[in-house]
Amino acid sequence: MMEFDLAPMCVAARAAAGQLAAMPTARKADGLRAAADMVRNRAAAILEANAQDMARAEQGGLTDALLDRLRLDTGRIDAMAQGIEAVAALADPVGQRIDRSERPNGLVLDRVRVPIGVIGIIFESRPNVTADAAALCVMAGNAAILRGGSEARASNAAIHLAFVTGLESAGLPRDAVQLVPTTDRAAVGAMLAAAGAIDLIVPRGGKSLVARVQADARVPVLAHLDGICHSYVDAAADPARARAIVVDAKLRRTGICGATETLLIDRALPDPYTIVAALLEAGCELRGDADAQAIDARIGVATAQDWDTEYLAPILSVAMVDGVGGAIAHIARHSSHHTDAIVTEDAATAERFLTDVDSAIVMWNASTQFADGGEFGLGAEIGIATGRLHARGPVALEGLTTYKWLVRGTGQVRG
Amino acid sequence: MMEFDLAPMCVAARAAAGQLAAMPTARKADGLRAAADMVRNRAAAILEANAQDMARAEQGGLTDALLDRLRLDTGRIDAMAQGIEAVAALADPVGQRIDRSERPNGLVLDRVRVPIGVIGIIFESRPNVTADAAALCVMAGNAAILRGGSEARASNAAIHLAFVTGLESAGLPRDAVQLVPTTDRAAVGAMLAAAGAIDLIVPRGGKSLVARVQADARVPVLAHLDGICHSYVDAAADPARARAIVVDAKLRRTGICGATETLLIDRALPDPYTIVAALLEAGCELRGDADAQAIDARIGVATAQDWDTEYLAPILSVAMVDGVGGAIAHIARHSSHHTDAIVTEDAATAERFLTDVDSAIVMWNASTQFADGGEFGLGAEIGIATGRLHARGPVALEGLTTYKWLVRGTGQVRG
């Protein structure tokens, strides 16, 4: 077995981060465009590597869903290159002034955004994360240390090689993006323990990966473990709007973290049946509390566990609640603080919900499926965070920066 | 020995935090003013408790410095009450809109500041921290769980009792501020392990406390371990200004984290002697590298360890460097990323230093002793952070908040 030492990678990353931190926006963008070009130019080599991974995965009996995530084709490679180019076109947060104040003694204080430093990305089967996460880190002036899953190791290596060759051709440091050269699980442990050497870890993958990272990391983590999202239909909801929102929130794509998993219905809603019927007719299994079951015989029984379950499937738990207060209380108990929505025409009720629901994203008259950095206009996202510090909700370039205080004086002493 | 269970305190804190999060600014401020009044009204009881702590501490042989930190008198109690009132007068960050955007589909996105939730404060001998930290937490809408040191246990209990009695008299939840009822060290361990129940830990105390908290916490921590601050005198510095700044930065108070610990002198500085002489004459011990020792025979020898030492005393290490580039390189190796300053009349050199030095606070022509929330106009500070996430430098009310996304729609579905 290969001996793996993370420390030299961290030292190289820190040095690269120092160069990137001081680099003008145009140079970073040029570097990323060169990386995108190189990914396209080396499509054949990337596809060949991917074919090795696919062959091994098929022998290993991976599920069709996992095989699909792993598979690359020229369309997907081009999409990856376009993704890098899209990041290169984003506004650069580095150097932005957050605020300025002048003190009575004449000191002028600015808070300006600066890169975080060294970001560790730990991800699973989708090899496109290699390019995607690396591009976001570099554009925000950070060095990235990537650790991909073993299934995609050849694909990741080929994409990484193309990416850094492109960066280097444009004069950026090759160590701006490093790929951990082993898929040994101990490498993940080393990254999670690297407090001071890695400044932030972003896990991208399934729940067991995220849970392990959150449990073991000695380095700050941005992530969400669950997306137990709620849609609440208030008595004052417009019926057609409520039906359209709820069906979209649950069923547009059931496998994403912003999909609604629990429908809360105000007991005072005049006609809950049409919403329930629309869901059932669209093929959704419903599991309700006793009162919800009374709406339609096709609604099954929800157990206590259902209220805390992220189905990621066409299954929805349904609870009847006493108005917006009841909805807020249910959400406080069961939400994963990702995204929760209210449907109502009553602005005061909506504002109460927006204020009192303590989630990263709270919506009024919109589908929870909009919980996405692209939909939020952030251009791309490194992930969605449900923790309470640093950044919440979709995290993009700004979330990959921190700030420092610049104090300009004219000889002031505290005396 | 008393069995201590943190969990019920965390549950009570979470409930109180929910009430505080939705509370208007005026009610929080009223609560804090009532707490300040009660601290003044109960001064006799607080002093009696403090006398018990002092008696025990004197028997226990505490140093004079520690005894002074522990000691309360009516002046100090009044200062504590004034500190609470000052926090009550600060602008409330909760509900502030950070930004707004409208998407092409008509969704309107606001990011608004909200409290973090439950904050754990772990502190040592100074009993005034009880009131001070509690006031900041409450004003930012957070519940606080305080754990003070055993030396001050009677004082802390008396101050806490007065504080929460005041809060309650104004209709605020008593559990907004709880004091851990044991000074057993295991209580600290329980707080550090309480991920999900406590959202943030702020240690206030000596280096060994901070080091333990940083090493063991499973909860995010805002803190600084060291304040190894540098002042760099560039060749283009004004001599009189440089002398005044350096003497103040080192000697105004030597025991604070913003005190300069290393002086960097540009080899091209025409007259380094006057600065060195001013420091020596003011009673400062200097330890220099070989070139620095050549300036004056009274400069002693700096060992490798001196460059990484926070003296907190009238001792200063002195290194000669090759211009601003040499200063930046020295700082990158040895700074604790707290506060570093340049003295120069050359604006371009200053801007290079401000950009390239990666510390929470970077100063130009000012004393590093200004590194303080009060001096920064923040009104008060819960501490100074040298980590890279969430908040850097002096942390006050804004640093005790996070944000959420509010999305207002008119029936948008992702479709």
Give a structural overview:
Two copies of one chain form a homodimer. Chain A is of the alpha/beta class and 415 residues long. Chain A has two domains: 7-222 and 394-406, Aldehyde Dehydrogenase, Chain A, domain 1; 229-370, 3-Layer(aba) Sandwich (Aldehyde Dehydrogenase, Chain A, domain 2). Helices cover 40% and strands 21% of the residues of chain A. Chain A has 14 helices and 16 strands. Chain A has helices spanning 7-21, 25-41, 43-59, 64-70, 74-88, 128-139, 153-169, 185-192, 207-216, 239-251, 272-281, 290-293, 323-334, 347-356, and strands at 97-102, 108-115, 118-123, 143-147, 177-179, 200-204, 229-233, 260-266, 285-288, 300-301, 315-321, 339-343, 361-366, 383-385, 393-395, 401-412. In chain A, the strands form four sheets. In chain A, strands 10-9-11-8-7-12-13 form a seven-stranded parallel β-sheet, with helices on both faces. In chain A, strands 5-4-3-6 form a four-stranded parallel β-sheet, sandwiched between helices. Chain A is globular. The mean pLDDT of chain A is 96. At the A-B interface, α10, α14, β13 and β16 of A face α10, α14, β13 and β16 of B. β16 (401-412) of chain A pairs parallel with β13 of chain B, so a sheet runs across the interface. Chains A, B: Belongs to the gamma-glutamyl phosphate reductase family.
